[in-house]
Design a protein that fits this description.
about 210 residues; mainly alpha; 6 helices; about 90% helix
């Protein structure tokens, strides 16, 4: 890799990492008062849209300064930028949640998982109620299905409680966030493949 590409990758990777690292601090400062809907909109929807835009923008930026820009080089540059960004995010997560605010991390995420279980039960019960009122299932089938759902939700809640009780006692393992890094890199590699194809395709058309 040429020196200009190394500088580009490092700089853009740091920019991306700083953007990623904003989100754990948002969670720390505002997560407790944030509704589940708002949380998923910000941490999944907004995060995804901005991340895709930034990586695409960096890819186009590199295309403008690179002498050789084919699909392979486009993917490599964007993946390396993404890898640096996610690595910085992992350092931020470990520093913030493993070292300084472990109890806060456990509190926030245990609460979210519990709320998801409650929402799943409410949604399933609502669907059953509609099916029963519409005459699609009998009263016996309704009661049986509701019992099965409640048992499954209760089991899920017990597993969730046991997992977080263990973390309350033993703390948050760094491997939790290292595992997230592996997943993030796999996920972003797919996005990078798609974006590299788009950028390369637009270059051919131009």
């Amino acid at each position: 890799m040429k020196e200009v590409d190394k500088v580009f990758v490092l700089n853009r990777g740091l920019y991306l990492g700083i953007f990623f690292s904003i989100f754990p601090f948002i969670d720390l400062l505002f997560g407790e008062d944030m509704s589940s809907k708002t949380y998923y909109i910000i941490f999944y929807g907004l995060w995804f849209v901005i991340t895709v835009y930034l990586i695409y923008f960096f890819g186009k930026e590199n295309r403008a300064i690179s002498d050789l820009f084919d699909f392979r080089s486009a993917f490599r540059i964007m993946f390396l930028v993404s890898a640096i960004g996610f690595s910085l995010l992992t350092v931020t997560r470990i520093t913030l949640w493993n070292i300084f605010y472990t109890d806060k991390y456990i509190e926030l995420n245990e609460s979210r998982e519990t709320k998801l279980s409650v929402y799943a039960l409410e949604y399933a019960q609502s669907s059953l109620d509609e099916a029963y009122k519409g005459g699609n299932i009998s009263s016996d089938e309704y009661e049986e299905s509701l019992t099965i759902i409640e048992n499954q939700i209760n089991q899920a809640q017990e597993i969730t409680k046991e997992r977080w009780d263990f973390r309350k006692k033993n703390g948050i393992s760094k491997t939790l966030f290292l595992g997230s890094l592996v997943y993030d890199l796999f996920f972003i590699s797919i996005i990078n493949l798609i974006l590299a194809l788009i950028i390369r395709r637009k270059q051919e058309i131009a």
